[in-house]
Every structure is written in structure tokens, then in C-alpha cells.
Design goal:
The protein has about 400 residues and is mostly helical. It folds into three domains: about 100 residues, no CATH class; about 150 residues, no CATH class; about 80 residues, Winged helix-like DNA-binding domain superfamily/Winged helix DNA-binding domain (Arc Repressor Mutant, subunit A), CATH 1.10.10.10. The chain is about 55% helix and about 5% strand. The protein has 20 helices and six strands. The strands form two sheets. It has a three-stranded antiparallel sheet. The chain has a three-stranded antiparallel sheet with strand order 4-6-5. A hairpin with a 3-residue loop joins β2 and β3. The protein is globular and about 55 Å long. The N and C termini lie far apart (about 45 Å). About 30% of the residues are buried. The N terminus is likely disordered.
Length: about 400
């Protein structure tokens, strides 16, 4: 009985911490997995819902696709009952209603959501009493319109992001970040600099603020090579299509070490048969792969291979994917889709975990019979702080 009570108290304490961190605005509480886990706690009262949250994201591909799925498809997932499916559809309904509603003067401007690639082709006409406010209202409507519809993207902007990230202002405000990027980007046209600034801010800081963890990591010159991998990871997280290309095309061809560019075009054509920007998207995908140090490319083909696991980049990505201190299964790291997208040698993942343990990043690793687990003692910010104290060890 006492063991049951202890387990129940621990579960309740974990849920309380989830809610507290969310209300306090902690970065780790804003990931898709953390938000989904918090939602599930309101629908499933007596169960550890973190594994279910991971499973749902893996099956549906993203939080947005999960919310958009119909209730019948949701209920087919083991562990999802009517309560959870209803909650997801309620959230989906509320976000669609908020998107479709007209912006008012009291609504905050969400410029971080501005992405001209994803804006609808036509915006509804509105009669304004003051003609001089037309452009202002239109810009606000664009800023409030979330990214929707096509998953295609026409520009990578990852090379520029990696170059400018170490010199970003010491501020969590995305407005400050975008303004700095707008002034610092090398393009002549003002509108081009604005667009690129929006791309970079959205992809590197998807939670809506410039987190200290990435800014601190980028400012340390010892991590300049690893910064490419970390930025590529965040790019992939922000662009699900990039994950699909890696898992569907590059990973199966890892033994051969190359694919033709035309294969990406054909792949995109099957997914988006009506699109006229397949070649632009293909070029953006290739640019991101090259900028992230994942592949090299010429006019006809893309070359790549399994890559060594760098401890600092691995630690950053690991603590991003498993944001809370706790005990996790090694298998979940080995099968994690975003970690696989970095083309790290799968057989070296366990060795990399042991290396992080030796560096004090991980508390311990246990391998007993078929059970392989590791224990994280930091969140992402704590992990980066620890890495920065390692001197020349890494």
C-alpha cells in the first residue's frame, strides 16, 4: 500500500511540476512533447502520460497534425480514449476560431509567425474608415496569421543563421533578434532582409523567445563546429518536411552515400503535385544540408555518410528531446527521429551516452539484462551551463 501511495504521490508531483513550469513560462515547458504531456494530464487522471505523448508525436509527425487528425483516428491509438480525443479536437477548434477571427487593436502583434512563404494567396478585403491604416492593418493580419497549409519552404537561411547567431543581442525578445538580423543580413533589399530575419527567428527559436541555452552555446567559440549541428537540429524540428526527406531518402541510402537531386524533386512532386516551387524547395533542402555540415552537394547529387557523434552537440540535442531530468530508456534515444536526422552513427549512440556520463552531463547509465537506461540531471539550460564549465575537455 505504501509503495502505491509513494508512486501516486510522485506522479501527482510530476504533474504539478509540469503545470508550474508551464505557468512560469519555462522554455522546457513549451516543446511539443511537454505541451502534449500537460494536455494529456487533464484527460487521463491515473497514468504516466509521457510515453503516450512521445508515441502520439511519433505516429502523427507533429503536434499540428495530431490536433488536425479526426477523432476516430485518434481513438485508434492505444491509450487514447474519448476524453483525450475530445480534448484534442477542442484545442483544434479553439485555435482555428482564433485564427479565423479578425484582429483587434487589443490583440498582440505576433511577428514571429510572419512567413511570407506560408501566407494565404489572398487576404479578405476589409473596409477601413481611415485609408491611411490599410497597410498597417494588412501587416498586422499577416503577422497574426499562423503558418498553415503547405509544408514547402523556398529558402533555408541556415547558413546566415549560423553566421549571425553568435553575435545576437543578449535578449530573449524575438523583436530584438529580428531587428538585429534585419540590420546585419547581407542582402541589399529591405524586404528580403525582413523575410530572412523572420525565417531565422522562427526556425531557431520556435517557442517564441530567444532562449538563453542556444545563445550561450553559440557564443562559445569552442562550439563553432557543433553549432552547425545544433542549428540544423532546430531547423529540422521547425520544418517537418526536412525530417521526412532525411528519413525517407537519405537514411535508406546511407550505405550508398549519395542520392541524385532529382530524387528529392520527385519525392516532393508526389507529396505536392500541384506545387510550382518544387525546385526552389529542393534547393532550400540542399542548402540546409550543406550549411548544417550534414552533406556536400554538386549540381546533380548529394553526398553524405554516417557521422561521428560530437559530445557537445549530442548533449544539446539530447536535453532538447528529453527536456526534464529523469530516467529514460537508451532505446528511445537510438530510435529518436530527430537524432537520426543528424546522421550520427547509430552504433555510437551508447558510447556517446557513456562519454557524457564521464563528463558529468549524465548522472548514470545502467545496463541490466535487457534493460538499458540513463539518468539526466539537467534541463537544457543546466546542460549548456555545465558544458561551458568544461574548459577544454570537450
Amino acid at each position: 500500500m505504501f509503495a502505491w501511495m509513494s508512486k501516486s504521490a510522485s506522479k501527482n508531483g510530476h504533474r504539478e511540476r509540469l503545470r508550474k513550469r508551464f505557468l512560469q513560462g519555462e522554455a522546457s515547458s513549451r516543446t511539443d512533447e511537454a505541451v502534449l504531456e500537460l494536455l494529456l494530464t487533464f484527460a487521463i487522471p491515473q497514468r504516466d502520460v509521457q510515453p503516450l505523448a512521445k508515441s502520439l508525436l511519433a505516429q502523427f509527425g507533429s503536434f499540428d497534425k495530431l490536433l488536425s487528425a479526426d477523432a476516430e483516428a485518434l481513438c485508434k491509438v492505444e491509450g487514447v480514449k474519448t476524453n483525450a480525443a475530445t480534448l484534442f479536437k477542442l484545442i483544434d477548434y479553439l485555435r482555428k476560431r482564433a485564427t479565423d477571427s479578425k484582429p483587434s487593436e487589443s490583440q498582440p502583434e505576433c511577428a514571429s509567425l510572419l512567413d511570407s512563404e506560408a501566407l494565404p494567396l489572398a487576404l479578405p478585403e476589409r473596409k477601413l474608415e481611415t485609408p491611411g491604416l490599410v497597410e498597417t492593418k494588412l501587416e498586422r493580419l499577416k503577422a497574426l496569421k499562423p503558418r498553415q497549409g503547405t509544408e514547402l519552404f523556398g529558402k533555408a537561411a541556415l547558413r546566415e543563421a549560423i553566421q549571425l547567431l553568435p553575435s545576437l543581442p543578449d535578449s530573449v525578445s524575438l523583436d530584438d533578434v529580428r531587428e538585429y538580423l534585419r540590420k546585419s543580413l547581407h542582402f541589399n533589399a529591405e524586404e528580403t532582409r525582413k523575410r530572412y530575419a523572420a525565417y531565422i527567428a522562427r526556425r531557431l527559436f520556435p517557442d517564441g523567445f530567444a532562449d538563453e541555452a542556444l545563445r550561450s552555446f553559440s557564443r562559445n567559440g569552442r562550439f563553432s563546429a557543433q553549432l552547425k549541428e545544433v542549428c540544423f537540429y532546430r531547423f529540422c524540428k521547425a520544418e517537418p518536411l526536412m525530417q521526412n526527406v532525411l528519413t525517407d531518402l537519405l537514411l535508406p541510402a546511407l550505405g550508398m552515400g549519395r542520392i541524385q537531386r532529382d530524387r528529392i524533386v520527385s519525392y516532393l512532386h508526389k507529396k505536392f503535385p500541384q506545387s510550382k516551387s518544387l525546385h526552389d524547395c529542393t534547393q532550400a533542402i540542399v542548402d540546409a544540408l550543406v550549411a548544417g555540415g550534414i552533406a556536400s552537394a554538386d549540381r546533380k547529387q548529394i553526398s553524405f555518410s554516417a557521422r561521428p557523434v560530437n559530445p557537445a552537440a549530442f548533449a544539446f540535442v539530447l536535453h532538447s528531446e528529453f527536456p526534464e531530468p529523469g530516467i529514460y530508456e537508451v532505446a528511445k534515444v537510438e530510435s529518436n527521429r530527430l537524432l537520426r536526422c543528424l546522421l550520427w552513427t547509430p552504433e555510437r549512440i551508447l558510447d556517446a551516452l557513456y562519454e557524457l556520463r564521464n563528463l558529468g552531463v549524465i548522472s548514470k547509465i545502467s545496463e541490466i539484462d535487457s534493460i538499458r537506461q540513463f539518468t539526466l540531471k539537467f534541463d537544457l539550460a543546466g546542460c549548456v551551463n555545465h558544458l561551458l564549465k568544461q574548459g577544454q575537455t570537450l
